[in-house]
Every structure is written in structure tokens, then in C-alpha cells.
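Appendix B. Raw example, untouched.
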Amino acid sequence: MKKLFYALLIVSSLNTSAKISKTTRTKSLLTEKIEKTFSKSLSKKDIKLAKEEVLKYKGKAVPALINIMKNEKFPDRNRWVATFLLGRVMGRKSIPFMTKFSKHPNWVMRLASYKSLLALGEKDPKIYSKGLKDPSLLVRFQSLDSVSRLNLTELAPTVWSMLYDKRNYYSSKKDNKKKRQHIVKSIVKTVGDLKFKKAEEALLKMVLNKKYDDILKEMNYALSKITNKKAPVDDPVMIKRFWKKHQLAKMTF
């Protein structure tokens, strides 16, 4: 009887080991399959199919997605897609990992991380504060968009300070003068979206100065947001006249 019991125990143990081995191997094969798909250049149609396949596997696809994000052998475009898919699969649980990738040496990965963090609704101002000072212009653009959409008012001073960041300007080949990058318009609008009251006085001086006529529309937008005043939007002369009256009213008051 004892011999029969031990024999059954051994068989049961072998079966269990076989199941564990099979499960581990299945996961490994799945990871290999996903990585193989993402190792080559993908068309829009291929990317759509790859997304559908990954989302079907849900959490089982996480190891492959992380490997793709980490490994430079995969095309940047595919690593970008993998970043968004990780956010879709893991949800807010992926935020700590995404936050680490917001400091990645590759600007494409940093940009993908910031976009994913926005999609996940992450509101930690420390993360976006670094993004506003990122070496990449595109990452700074994305960080501005995130700060505005998430209404991170505590970052308003940091956004305002971007007007003094030399990287947001370029030298004109014609006259060798400093010109504003397009991001400056986004900076001014974001200051308005955040209702940064401390910028009002400076903006009122700027809006009346011809030197800033190229960003008049954005300054008008920002001042309207900050003051809750309905200003003209099309006629430059009327815009300046409107804010001049507002400035004089403040001085009189």
C-alpha cells in the first residue's frame, strides 16, 4: 500500500512539474513572438494588427513590451508603440516605470513617456517640471501641453521662466538677430491657461511693445484668461487700445 502511495505521489509531482514547465515555456514563446513582430519596420497596417494582438494578451504581453522599450535593437517607432501599449495594458500601475523612462537618453522614449503619463492622468508636478527644461524642443512642447491640460498651476512660474531659456530662440541668418521659436507662443498661452497673475504686469508692457507683435495674439489670449476680460481678438490696434485702457485703469485704481 505504501509503495502504491509513493508511486502515485511521484507521478503527480512529475505532472505538476510538466505543467509548470509548459506554462513558463508558453510565456517565453509569447514574449519571443511579440518581440519578433516588433523587431522589424512596421507599416501602419502592421502596427494596427500588432496593437490588437498585444491587447488580446493583456498582462502576459508586459515582459515583451518592457524588453522592447529597453532594447535599442528595436526601431524607435516600435518602441514608441510599445510604450503606449504598456500604458494601455497596465494602466496607472505603469506610472513608476513611465516616470523612469521620462529620463531616458533617447528623446523619442522621453516624448513617448510624457505622452503616456498625460494619457494616464499623472499629475506629479516634479515630473513635468523636468520636461519643461528638457534638451529636446519636442519634449518641452509636450510638457507644456501636459501642464496646460492637467492644469498644474504650481508650475506656472517654471513655464514663465521658459521665456528666458535661450534654447527657445534661434539666430536668424538674415540679420543674425535672435528669433522666437514657435514654442514661445505655446509658453505664453500656457501662462494664460494657468492664470498666472504675476505675469499680468509684464504681459501688459509687452503687448504694447512693437517688438512682441509676432506674439500679440497669444499675449492677448493670456491676458484675457488671467484677467477674465473679453478683449478683441482680430484687430491688433483694438487689442492694444483695449489693454492700454486696462493698464491705465489699474494705475488709477
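End of appendix B.
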